[in-house]
């Protein structure tokens, strides 16, 4: 059962990483235009050079 | 201050002053924030094309297209106007409309929604972790391992609940402070009691801890709240976009110089120029110019009224033929348009009497739960004289009866139904609008602008002599007056060519005159052409000395009006037509649509009073109207619908807005509302059945955390699935 001392913290940390990632996406307005973002990835405007 | 007094080290003071002045000026003028509505964009090519064109403009700092909202937001230098941007985008082949940035600001960041989402995420994360730990406890973890799992659960649960439960704590506290009970009071009590007894049990290394239940409860209820919030946020942002499309601008004349200003900046005594086709921004008096004005939005009359010097005009009226200069006598909140809001406020107090199904359920439910849990506590305490057992059982009863499914029962259905109606072009603005729509048994329609489009349609073309039509066409084709445009369209469609009329001049407010074969010809108002005025909408043609001929008009029907009335009549509803227009016009329309009951020449207060009277007879009235004269009636009715073309005041007063031009969704909406209400009731019943099965177990002391978790999740999931069945 000693394995629990590793496994429980690991699972909590992994879950926490997911939570922090989600909070980050909400805070940086990534859900404002879901439809547009889905289409933008198909556009090749900035393929050769990054958007200034 | 000291910094500005210090002498500059520069040899030439002007050299350093000029750039400083420039930066000052630049700071004074904030960048222009322009929003455009782009209803036709649909693909990634549209996005990049528009963004590239806007960003290539030398004065635009940045531009971004939002495909979900079909909107472009532009950050540009102060001298850039919205009109310039609009023409730029229209040049690319896309429809574009300016949006009033001030109205839209409120929708830009949905802070409350984001806050709820964050709390939901934390509750979800915590409940998943605690559930995993609980599963191992249920599957047989014992002694020290179980205690450790309970302690870890407690360490996760306490901060998570403290953060995610805030909306419930706040609502419950607000209710308790006012001495009322709402759904949140039993929720908070269940959460707090569950955590307290679980902590106590954990300290005594007991067997049952309800940390997972407390978290799952918070998670499900927050999910319900979030759904509810999203539905309303979507409706609100769509309603705000409608308002933002009408940019409130007026042309002010000062010392002979015209300038376009925001309506909010107008003051009493300002001279305002209203061009033909424009709407009066303020109440005032005509200083110069003659014209005809269309008051249909205020009174429901379709007949244009003559307007000359010295006459009073009210905000909302539309100028038809000649430019008018008016002196403002009341602006902003003082205008008659806004004074109508008082009538609305009085009428609205009636609507707030409606109690939603959820509130009704809560009223029955909240005291019941408290009494049941209190009794089981008392019973077990008297039976065993053991505080710990009694408290544990009381907590179990509270958790199992907790309104998890009830909290989801209404929002899940309303979200599904609103989404369905939104796709059909109806915007549900008010949270209980669907429930109220389901009860409707009487439908009151306004005429002008609601059942009809407000654009006239020539009716007696075939009865007129050929020469008369050709002369009328020649006189009408240059005018922008709606009646003249109706003549032009009807005559051209029937294949007539204009006669050779020379010296055609428009006399604003009266009509058009010209010379035909040496005789003077006139097309216009009855008094001007020497005709006897008819009671219906008409214009008159006088050729030389001959008797004047009347050209009569009816309002074109709005598409879907016949279907909507038919569907409502077939649905067994009483349909009434109520209009401020003249009796013959209203009667003709009522016969055309097969509406048995109609009221003509109704004043705004009459309309509201009649709706009120119908209510008092016990009828549930649905009012459909668009004008200012309908506003009070819209607010007084049980539920109200207005088309998107309605005045802002009418849209604000109504519960549902029709986004398209078509009226036919009204009939279907009543059906959807009925089935939605049926689903809500079904959901309440499902939740009750789960309670009836689980509560005896809890009261008998047989409930374990496993049973609580199963009952809660199963009932929540069934309720959500049932909501999705909505057609």
From TrEMBL, chain A:
InterPro entries to which the protein is assigned, alphabetical: Cyt_oxidase_maturation_cbb3
Biased composition regions of type Basic and acidic residues, renumbered to the chain: 36-52
GTP-binding is among the record's keywords: no
Domain of life the protein comes from: Bacteria
Region named Disordered: 30-52
Pfam families for the chain: FixS
Keywords recorded for this protein, A-Z: Membrane, Transmembrane, Transmembrane helix
Keyword Acetylation: no
Transmembrane portions of the chain: 6-26
Database matches in PANTHER family: FIXS PROTEIN
Name of the molecule in the record: Cytochrome oxidase maturation protein cbb3-type
Native source organism of the sequence: Roseovarius tolerans
């Amino acid at each position: 059962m000693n394995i629990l001392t590793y496994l429980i913290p690991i699972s909590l940390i992994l879950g926490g990483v997911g939570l922090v990632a989600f909070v980050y996406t909400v805070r940086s307005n990534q859900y404002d235009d879901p439809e547009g973002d889905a289409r933008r990835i198909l556009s090749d405007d900035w393929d050769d050079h990054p958007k200034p | 201050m000291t910094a500005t007094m210090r002498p500059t080290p520069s040899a030439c003071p002007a050299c350093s002053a000029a750039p400083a002045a420039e930066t000052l000026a630049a700071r004074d003028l904030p960048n222009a924030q322009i929003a455009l509505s782009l209803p036709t964009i649909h693909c990634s090519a549209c996005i990049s094309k528009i963004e590239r064109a806007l960003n290539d403009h030398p004065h635009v700092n940045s531009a971004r297209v939002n495909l979900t909202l079909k909107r472009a937001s532009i950050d540009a230098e102060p001298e850039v106007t919205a009109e310039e941007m609009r023409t730029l985008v229209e040049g690319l082949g896309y429809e574009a409309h300016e949006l009033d940035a001030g109205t839209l600001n409120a929708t830009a960041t949905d802070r409350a929604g984001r806050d709820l989402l964050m709390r939901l995420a934390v509750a979800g994360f915590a409940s998943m972790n605690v559930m995993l730990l609980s599963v191992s406890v249920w599957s047989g973890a014992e002694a020290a391992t179980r205690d450790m799992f309970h302690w870890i659960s407690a360490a996760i649960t306490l901060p998570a609940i403290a953060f995610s439960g805030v909306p419930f704590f706040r609502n419950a506290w607000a209710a308790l402070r006012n001495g009322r009970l709402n759904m949140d009071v039993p929720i908070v009590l269940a959460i707090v009691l569950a955590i307290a007894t679980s902590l106590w049990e954990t300290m005594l290394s007991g067997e049952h801890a309800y940390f997972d239940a407390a978290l799952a409860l918070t998670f499900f209820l927050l999910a319900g709240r979030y759904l509810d919030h999203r539905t309303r946020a979507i409706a609100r942002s769509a309603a705000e976009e409608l308002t933002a499309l009408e940019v409130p601008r007026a042309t002010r004349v000062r010392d002979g110089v015209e300038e376009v200003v925001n309506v909010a900046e107008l003051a009493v005594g300002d001279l305002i120029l209203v061009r033909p086709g424009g709407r009066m921004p303020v109440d005032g008096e005509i200083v110069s110019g003659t014209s005809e004005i269309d008051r249909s939005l205020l009174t429901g009359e379709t007949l244009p009224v003559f307007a000359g010097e010295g006459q009073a005009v009210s905000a909302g009226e539309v100028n038809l033929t000649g430019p008018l200069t008016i002196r403002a006598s009341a602006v902003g909140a003082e205008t008659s348009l806004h004074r109508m809001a008082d009538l609305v406020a009085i009428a609205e107090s009636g609507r707030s009497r409606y109690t939603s199904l959820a509130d009704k359920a809560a009223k029955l439910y909240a005291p019941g739960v408290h009494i049941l849990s209190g009794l089981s506590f008392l019973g077990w305490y008297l039976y065993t004289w053991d505080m710990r057992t009694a408290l544990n059982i009381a907590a179990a009863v509270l958790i199992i009866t907790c309104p998890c499914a009830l909290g989801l029962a209404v929002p899940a259905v309303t979200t599904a139904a609103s989404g369905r109606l939104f796709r059909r072009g109806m915007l549900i603005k008010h949270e209980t609008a669907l429930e109220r729509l389901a009860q409707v048994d009487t439908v009151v329609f306004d005429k002008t602008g609601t059942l009809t489009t407000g654009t006239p349609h020539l009716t007696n073309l075939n009865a007129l002599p050929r020469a008369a039509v050709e002369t009328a066409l020649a006189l009408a084709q240059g005018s922008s007056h709606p009646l003249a445009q109706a003549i032009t369209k009807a005559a051209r469609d029937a294949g007539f060519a204009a006669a050779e009329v020379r010296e055609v001049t428009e006399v604003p407010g009266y009509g058009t005159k010209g010379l035909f074969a040496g005789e003077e010809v006139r097309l216009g108002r009855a008094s001007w052409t020497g005709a006897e005025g008819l009671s219906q909408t008409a214009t008159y043609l006088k050729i030389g000395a001959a008797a004047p001929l009347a050209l009569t008009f009816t309002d074109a029907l709005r598409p879907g009006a016949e279907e909507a009335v038919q569907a409502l009549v077939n649905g067994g509803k009483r349909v009434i037509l109520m209009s401020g227009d003249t009796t013959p016009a209203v009667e003709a329309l009522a016969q055309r649509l097969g509406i048995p009951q109609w009221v003509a020449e109704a004043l705004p207060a009459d309309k509201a009073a009649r709706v009120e009277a119908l209510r008092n007879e016990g009828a549930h009235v649905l009012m459909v109207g668009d004008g200012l004269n309908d506003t009070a009636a819209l607010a007084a009715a049980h539920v109200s619908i207005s088309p998107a073309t309605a005045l802002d005041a009418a849209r604000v007063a109504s519960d549902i807005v029709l986004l398209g031009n078509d009226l036919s969704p009204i009939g279907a909406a009543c059906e959807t509302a009925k089935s939605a209400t049926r689903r809500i009731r079904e959901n309440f019943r499902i939740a009750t059945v789960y309670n009836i099965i689980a509560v005896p177990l809890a009261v008998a002391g047989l409930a374990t955390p496993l049973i609580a978790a199963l009952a809660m999740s199963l009932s929540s999931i069934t309720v959500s699935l049932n909501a999705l069945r909505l057609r």
